[in-house]
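Sequence in, structure out. Go.
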Amino acid sequence: QQTSLVVAVSLFIAVKRRLDELKKGRIEDYAGRLIEIEKESQQARSIPELNRSKAELTSILARVVDDMRHKRVNAEGLQLFSFVWESVNYTVNDHEEQLRLGPGTTRSIAGRAKRGRRSAR
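Output:
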């Protein structure tokens, strides 16, 4: 009986490890795609190109939320994904602003222009 208990516990541990590896792999796949989206968005030359990146970001987020609901990702993986997703989302939005404002502009210049208009009132 002890032998069968040891085998059962060992099997349970092995299955749990494998499931954890699958969850980790899933998040790594998502994070890898996010990095690709970031690179693609930095090369975008138009707002419609960036909109495709934004749509894919939203789609990936929806898939991860669904995976979370179905326990296909763990909390640690979700934290990693959140960090990467927010970073990529910021980069995409920043590049969109640069495209809208024109070449050679940055957020700080846009911010100074807004502050300048306020102080001129």
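Check: Residues 53 and 59 are 10 Å apart (CA to CA). DSSP finds four helices and no strands in the chain.
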